[in-house]
Amino acid sequence: MAELKRRVRRILGSILVYAVLTVPLIPIFLMYTWLFVQAFSDRVIFGIIPQGLTLRNWAFLNNPIVFGGITHTSIWVILRNTLIFTLGVTGLITVVSSLSGYALSRVQFKGRTEFMQFILALHAFPAVILLIAVFYILNKMGLYGKGLLAFLGIIIVKAGMEIPMSAWILKGFFDVIPWDLEWAALIDGCTRLGTWRRVILPMIMPGIAAISIFSFIAGWGEFILVYTYMATEEYFTLSVFIHRMIGEIMYVRWGTIAALGVFYLLPIIFFFIFTQKALLRIYIGGIKR
What we know:
Elements: H1 2-22, H2 25-39, E1 41-45, E2 49-53, E3 66-67, E4 70-71, H3 75-106, H4 112-123, H5 131-140, H6 148-176, H7 179-187, H8 192-200, H9 205-220, H10 224-229, H11 238-247, H12 254-279
Helix pairs in contact: 2-12, 3-6, 3-9, 4-6, 6-9, 7-8, 9-12, 11-12
């Protein structure tokens, strides 16, 4: 009898846990279901049942989108902008964070502890509060509304917002590397920079991979900076372009919008599938302090 009660309690506990985990996911599942179903159908009933399967919603792959008599920029130009923005942000964050993380780990300087505490405190504030200040700086530098120059400026701004926390994360990886390895390289005649590049970096590749992946995702999903500071559609990224299409409320075609959403999601989905092993291996193995 006691064993039966324990089994019943265990089963009820499992049901409760799965219910708590599943219920919040239902609205998200329904939204993504609608998105993929609507992208390949004329209309959807009850949110998930397609009516009339079609590929007309994907016509933007060959022809520019025309809403309300306005011909918008080709989706391939927008995709190019998004890739340039994402790869630029990822490259800057990875390079600068690996250097600054090494400095925070290895270099002793006055105010080092306070500086690291300031990084954490700074990261707690939302980036949106800096929009006016960044606009003022870009305007003073003559970059606002200057097309490519403004686009490059936004890449630097986005990378600058992500670098502090990335450097903090990489500092933890550098801390694990024993000083003995670095001293041995220096004694053998390697410079400090050469030691960092040839000895230390190969040993923290899981951390570099993780930072690169998170930076790529952050760059791909960036909206507010591009939306605020880019005045021309020629340099829009996919997130801002989709927002512009939704804004054409009088002429919006939800099938096209859904197809654009799927087009926007697919690269990041495939990227996550092929990089999730690196995310699950965020450690350094085989090293003893």
